[in-house]
Amino acid sequence: MKKILLKNAKVVDDKGIRKSDLVIEGEKIAAEEKRGFFEEDEQKGEFKVIDLAGKYLFPGIIDAHTHYSLHSRGTVTADDFYQGSIAAAAGGVTTVIDYIDFPEDGNFKKSVAERKKEAQDSIIDYNFHQVVQEFNSKISENLADLKELGLASIKLFTTYKDVGYMIERDKWSELFKRLKEIEILPQVHAEDDDLIQDLKAAYSKRNLIEPRYHPSIRPAAAEALAVKDMGEEALKADIPLYIVHLSSAEGLEAVRELRAVKAQIYAETTPHYLMLDNSYLTRENAQLFLMTPPLRNKYDNQILWEGISQSEFQVVATDHCAFNKEQKMQSDSSLEILPGIPGTETLLSLIYSSGVRNNRITIREMVELLSINPAKIFGLYPEKGSLEPGTDADLTVFDPNVEKKLTAENLHSAAEYSPYQDFTVKGYPVMTFRRGELIFDNKLRAEKGSGRFIFAHSSSLL
Description:
By secondary structure, the protein is an alpha/beta fold. It has a domain at 62-377: TIM Barrel (Alpha-Beta Barrel), CATH 3.20.20.140. The protein is built from 15 helices and 18 strands. The strands form 3 sheets. Strands 1, 2, 3, 4, 5, 16, 17 and 18 form an 8-stranded mixed beta sheet that branches. The chain has an 8-stranded parallel beta sheet with strand order 6-9-10-11-12-13-14-15. It has a two-stranded antiparallel ribbon with strand order 7-8. It is globular, with a radius of gyration of 22 Å. The mean pLDDT is 97.
């Protein structure tokens, strides 16, 4: 197999932006040198040459929060790992970090093995976060298995007590101490359950349960309360805490207050909390825009973008959870609508088009949010998230001049709809390489099941 020479691109990674040429050999990055360095070897025919003039070259994009093949409320999401990974590759994403449901018997070796089996058809690489819903002496002991299994983090909930997701509050201190001891990063879905249950009862009593009331039943105040509560526990335990899908100005203010007293708080947000607002929940097809936490208002969009601009967020991920139209429209009650929207495929183009093009962030900062930081935080760096010679040749080729309307017809999710159908982006990925193989360039080129589980080491935060 010939080496591949990617030449004339603008390369962007944690070292900055530069004009250089990159060589791929097999699955790895073999070399990077200034433009023209390989010209003599090129003329000898030693390379398959791809000219990327006018384009950017990034380390492969990582979506650190996805839900492919999610089993929920008696059904399963439309995007399994095969279809979800096709959509991901089409959007320049080369690795996802998905979730593993909590095993009732606390056997994490079994739960990881079963989830790997579900993911085996993926065309991109993957790792997992383990959901933990109970804590006792047996689970405390078994948590150490996650390190040996190649997972760097667990996910915890401060809500959904009624369906068993939430660990009792009095066990958090002991759990955080254990996580610090075994160097596992805690993530938290932060919404105060007591407040939500009170509001749910009050709104249900008056039959105010349409999608438009979802943000009132699960308000920003609930997010801020839970962020503060869990942040204070993490501070006592002297452990970093990663907040998933932060949705509100109030939530971000709680993060700021915790950081001011030296709590190690790291935050992720999503494109939908930056681009969409609660007016979508008043539309005729409001069900298609319902997720948890709910969409907020335009002020929250603005404040979250300011947070992105001021480096207050470390990661932008998608919380991709794609139910199809039929599944989403089965109910018009915000308490019953299946929550979640598709997102992986549009992650890069939306953040570039609305973030970089609008001068909210630099292109290097975008690559940090979408590739470098998630790789470091979840223990995949430098194999993923870097362009170091000897590491996996996961590469995203990006054309800043390609325009695309984000309609369902132009995308690859099995959801059959696009929450961003009103958006036209400028700037789009045109080639996706996973471990040296071109897997997408306007058409699928990868074999089903060619993605791999990637072993994670400890988080860079620990």
